[in-house]
Design goal:
By secondary structure, the protein is α/β, with parallel strands linked by helices. It has one domain: Purple Acid Phosphatase, chain A, domain 2 (4-Layer Sandwich), CATH 3.60.21. It has 12 helices and 22 strands. The strands form 4 sheets. Strands 2, 3, 6, 7, 17, 18, 19, 20, 21 and 22 form a 10-stranded mixed beta sheet that branches. Strands 1, 9, 10, 12, 13, 14, 15 and 16 form an 8-stranded mixed beta sheet that branches. Helix 1 packs across helix 3 and helix 10 runs parallel beside helix 11. The structure holds zinc ion.
């Protein structure tokens, strides 16, 4: 278990307070007006609403952050570019392909460059905790995992690109954290720890890998973040952490027994006022269909394991979402940052469009108060606000997919998206 208080000061603190005083309260008011008893309870009053809005836990979530390979080559301290892929043998080529597709990248870029317009969104939304799936090893190791084909690494000298966005917690149970062997994993964990970034999902044994990151949110409670992976996302079974063996927290299957085992881990940690997040790397890279076992598993995590939010990822594009018993399930958050700009294929899924998810939860119950999404586009290895046309396209697709799960997605005039349920 790792602990760190999320201390933010100065301008950020001011923006947080001002955002809570405007966006949050207004949002709670509008929801109360729209949803009546469903949103605010039978005895909902202006005072209660205001309290709910100010005490809400505000989470930022995104899918895969892949800052290795081509992006690593654009950052101030590029690592060894050698690759062991079937067709491309240097990471520099991914940088060149991106430049051929969309124009020059002003390399070396500074550490905050890659976050682009997302930084303004962080200031405006002022989340208490920011959670991402870090889809790369952070290492100088040359011990690539043989036979894997794709091996992502970022030089530890570039770790400041993660802290530049104030990411509080990196989920590591995924199919790339061990791409450069056990030494690579150890260096990844060490690099993040030294940068004071919380991690979950990988460790030097099963206890460490399955332990949650626990983040204090002053005046509100704690965010307890578990990170787990399924073989369906391409994690080799040999990567599973075990007693005395390093690796990732890999679940065997989506069975009731697995839920029971996970529930025991949650109940050992969860206390009143905690918001528990299960961050899970599952399923394939492309496609909208949500496998039945995934949905059942997500429901059981909420019903039987005390989970308040399911943060799913692995798909390269956002997928449908659901609110089940007042708890949010994101089945696939999509990629958030990657070096794929010069790679063709699967254009219909618009993998260049990514989403910032801002969820507000009531700490006492973990219920979802609202979910707002800000569409972005990856251009020149950087996030920029998506155009109104692209935001509209995403809204339509996500509304189509989420409506199958009982939720709706609406686009607002400012190009942000909101979930209705
Ligand atoms: Zn993955």
């Amino acid at each position: 278990m790792k602990q760190r208080s999320a201390d933010k000061v100065g301008r950020r603190e001011f923006l947080k307070v001002s955002a809570a005083g405007t966006l949050g309260v207004l949002s709670a008011f509008s929801r109360a007006a729209e949803a009546g008893q469903q949103s605010m309870g039978q005895a909902g009053s202006v005072t209660d609403d205001r309290q709910t809005a100010s005490s809400a836990v505000k989470l930022f979530l995104c899918g895969d952050v892949m800052t290795g390979r081509g992006i690593d080559q654009a950052l101030p301290h590029p690592g060894d570019p050698r690759l062991f892929e079937p067709y491309i043998t240097t990471a520099v080529r991914y940088l060149e392909l991106a430049e051929e597709a969309n124009g020059p990248i002003p390399k070396p870029v500074d550490f905050s460059y890659i976050w682009g317009d997302a930084l303004d969104q962080f200031d405006c939304m002022a989340p208490d905790v920011k959670i991402a799936n870090l889809e790369t090893a952070v290492t100088r190791s040359n011990e690539y995992w043989p036979g894997k084909g794709i091996n992502y690494r970022m030089n530890p000298g570039n770790i400041a690109c993660i802290t530049a966005a104030g990411i509080d917690c990196c989920a590591l149970a995924n199919n790339h954290v061990l791409d450069w062997g056990y030494n690579g994993l150890a260096e990844t964990l060490r690099s993040l720890r030294e940068a004071r970034v919380n991690t979950a999902g990988a460790g030097s044994n099963l206890d460490e890998a399955s332990a949650p990151a626990v983040i204090n949110i002053p005046g509100k409670g704690r965010a307890v973040i578990f990170s787990l992976a399924s073989e369906t996302s391409g994690v080799p079974w040999s990567w599973a952490a075990a007693p005395g063996k390093p690796g990732v927290y890999l679940i065997r299957d989506f069975s009731a027994r697995t839920v029971r085992e996970f529930a025991a881990k949650v109940s050992a940690v969860k206390r009143q006022g905690d918001v528990v997040i299960a961050s899970i790397h599952w399923g394939g890279n492309w496609g909208y269909e949500i496998p039945g076992p995934h949905r059942t598993f997500a429901h059981r995590l909420i019903d039987r394991a005390g989970v308040d939010l399911v943060h799913g990822h692995s798909s390269h594009h956002p997928r449908g979402m659901e609110v089940y018993r007042n708890k949010l399930i994101l089945y696939g958050c999509g990629d958030f940052l990657n070096d794929y700009e010069g790679i063709s294929g699967y254009e219909a899924f618009r993998g260049d469009l990514t989403l910032m998810y801002f969820a507000r939860l009531e700490p006492a119950s973990g219920r979802l108060l609202d979910l707002e999404m800000r569409p972005m586009q990856i251009r020149n290895f950087r996030l920029k606000r998506a155009s109104s046309q692209d935001a509209g396209w995403l809204a339509k697709v996500l509304d189509r997919e989420s409506s199958k799960l009982g939720a709706r997605v609406e686009a607002r005039d400012d190009h942000s998206l909101v979930l209705r349920w």
